[in-house]
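Re: your question from the hallway

Yes, I did run it. Sequences:
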Amino acid sequence: MSVSEPVLRARGVTVARVGTEVVRDVDLELTAGEVVVIVGPNGAGKSTLLAALAGLLAVERGTVELRGRVAAALQAPALANRSARANVEAALGWWGAPRGGRTERALAALQAIGARGLADRPARALSGGEARRVHLARALALGADILLMDEPFAGLDPPTRAELLYDAASALRDSARATLVVVHDRAEAWALADRVLVMLDGRIASEGDPATVFGNPPNAAVAAFVGFVGRLEAPDAVRLFRPQDVALDPDGPLSARVTRLVPVEDGVRVELALDAGRLVALAPAPGPRLGEPVGVRLLGGVRFPRQPSAGRDVRDQDTPPDL
Amino acid sequence: MEFIWNGIWQAADLLAHGDHDILVVVGTTLRLALCSTLLALALGLPAGLALGLGRFRGRRVGLAFANAGMGLPPVVVGLVVALLLFRGAPLGGLNLLYTLDGVILAQTLLALPLVAALTAAAVQALPAGLLEQARAFGASRTQVAVLALREARVGVLAATIAAMGSAFAEVGAVVLVGGNIEDETQTLASAVLVRVSAGDYGRAIALGTILLGLIMILAASLTVAQQHERRALLGRPS
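Structure:
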């Protein structure tokens, strides 16, 4: 097997739950050494796709070809009632690892994810973040050729999540393994991904490196999901903007009125109403007053020509954003 | 009240002096309880796992039968087993009628639904995702079953206590299948019945006291083990 040959190849995968197709015609390839992240809103079909790739759910249509063994770390840590180390050893036992080296492998995996100190703690005594670390450690310990992980940072408080995310970002790098991670949050995708897939309504809506997917979305639906929350309508196009694309400037060419102010960590989130739509900007505290007219300058954004016949907005790649 | 105390003293005296008849009936009772419980566990644990975790047509019907089976009238089970064991009946060739093995068979049938239904309930109460995660890490069916039983061990011990308790208390099936034959198939519970019928209340109370003592010792041992496991599961010091 050559290094660049995919270790997982999914073609036209469709998966149904209770008679409803929640994953539709998904094509996907994973290559050894890469970390691929799937992002998408709740109900997009991410976890269902992962379960199908892991063989835990039947595929309605399409094919999944594997070159190597696949392990899946599901969303809930679901640790057994024994110590953290014994949990990792149990997973190694299920995987078929020789009994002799299990303890060493378990401790090495716990060490790799910064959980060596938890080895002898009972699972019941672990906090949510610690349980997730142990869960991650047992997935890493297996040495699978293909590792699938479903929301490994779900339900954690922000500091715990950030700490585990940075540890995981380095621990998941392995030239011999292909890793697919389902996450909810763009920051997690930025930290982990070589390649990002955006999943919307059961389909892969966008694919590429994080900078391309998040900065240059292919259509309005993907743009809205990746943070382009401002929207200006024109007869022939829709223009979408992230908060960082919008600056409050008394000399700006656009006029707007402040409709809502929300304090955020770095200042104030300012919602603006314009004749052509609405925008969101970030401003230093205390920001403008509610109802105040302000000038606006646009610094970026994306433009999607209208295609009434297609029924949705599609990015015109040849047309630079109308700024 | 005095004759009750006399009966208790008599029980202590019989045990202290190693009364042969008492030792035989205690031995028979223990053998019946242990053998039938072990057989019920051997058959009931896999059945309980299948009913609790399986995905097959008829699983709910099976679960309903197991739950209903917990209330099976022992006399009816004893009667059916006895009829099946009569010479010329389908199981007559086994020559188990009026033998302790026949009684063990009947008691196993009574304990089996207890073990299966309580095991099914225990494994169904396991945290969502525990067994699915084991499968996702490559666990075989047997490994998943072992994990389920291990994690549901408090419930499995409850099933064991129930099975053993029913064996100690059983009279109807013992009399109908075993014939309540002294030194062969008579157990403590059925011996009490005979003594009461004969008006020998003193010895009946003595036998009853020994039976209660045995039940208390075995149930207490299993309960201590069960609660130890529960504390371990909750992560509290034992």
